[in-house]
Inverse folding.
């Protein structure tokens, strides 16, 4: 089987799903499609479609991987012709195989898009993108920009809907939706396979909580919810 996991703007626990399935498939390779490198205007809702940096990531040994960058023009054909089990970790909902045979499509998201926005802002401000990357002890709590939060929420909604509609047009059905809030048991039930390596459940979910560092966290949530 081949699994396409899409987390359009990231910070949704998609690595949890990708790493768990990759381990279960016993494959040392995965595809990575980076986020779109374009401008987003919240008023117009315009997103510039641009892909750069599709990679085949190969696990060499524990903790060591090598990457092979693939030309943009070759990506679609590679997705269509790849025959062995693979996981594709995508942050670009516009890039899908046109042949859905053997592919399972999964949307990785959060029940509350505001938390996606806060997580993105937190990662940027603290420069800590992984649980093992500590926040500097001198880092101070900060105020988030409510307009940026609103823009990121809208951006997430637009791109998730792009992915949903593209999968529906390709397969005739909706993608599987997995929330970062889903339990390990629920995740397995939705995907339909046993994931025996529970160490992936929380290993990549950030422990740096926005409510600890964003001074106006509750105020923004109260306004936008």
């Amino acid at each position: 089987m081949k699994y396409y996991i899409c987390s359009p703007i990231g910070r949704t626990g998609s690595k949890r799903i990708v790493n768990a399935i990759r381990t279960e498939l016993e494959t040392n390779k995965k595809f990575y499609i980076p986020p779109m490198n374009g401008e987003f205007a919240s008023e117009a809702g315009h997103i510039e479609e641009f892909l750069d940096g599709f990679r085949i990531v190969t696990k060499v040994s524990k903790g060591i991987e090598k990457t092979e960058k693939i030309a943009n023009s070759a990506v679609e054909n590679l997705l269509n012709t790849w025959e062995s089990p693979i996981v594709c970790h995508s942050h670009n909902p516009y890039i899908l195989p046109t042949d859905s045979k053997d592919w399972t499509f999964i949307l990785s998201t959060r029940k509350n898009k505001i938390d996606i926005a806060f997580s993105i802002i937190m990662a940027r401000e603290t420069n800590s993108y992984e649980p093992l990357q500590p926040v500097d002890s001198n880092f101070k709590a900060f105020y988030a920009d409510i307009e940026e939060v609103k823009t990121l929420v809208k951006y997430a909604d637009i791109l998730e809907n792009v992915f949903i509609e593209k999968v529906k047009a390709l397969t005739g059905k909706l993608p599987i939706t997995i929330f970062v809030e889903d339990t390990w048991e629920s995740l397995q039930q939705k995907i339909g396979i046993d994931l025996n390596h529970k160490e992936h459940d929380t290993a990549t979910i950030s422990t740096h909580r926005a409510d600890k560092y964003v001074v106006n966290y509750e105020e923004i949530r109260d306004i936008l919810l």
Observations:
- The chain has one domain: 2-224.
